[in-house]
Amino acid sequence: MKKISLIIPCYNEEESLPLFYREVTGVMEGLGREYELIFVNDGSKDDTLLALKKMAERDGHVIYLSFSRNFGKEAAMYAGFCNAQGDYVAVMDADMQDP
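and the corresponding structure tokens:
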């Protein structure tokens, strides 16, 4: 069965992460496929990294990478692509503003 990798660049997303995680996990589980959620913390100044660490401890589908400073969305996406293990890879914003 094909695996799906979802790359999620994050910058100061502490508040939106719980809702995003709930929603995307529900969709991914409904697909009935293997998946991984690759969150890339792009040098956030809030507690985004702490939230990602807690999610990864609870859920083996969650992987996080963290930059020491803000490098921009493109660098975060590239890091996600370099670490993705899926047969299919998509990018989604953590602020849930994707159509």
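(Above: one complete record from the training split.) Strands lie at 3-10, 34-41, 62-66, 88-91.
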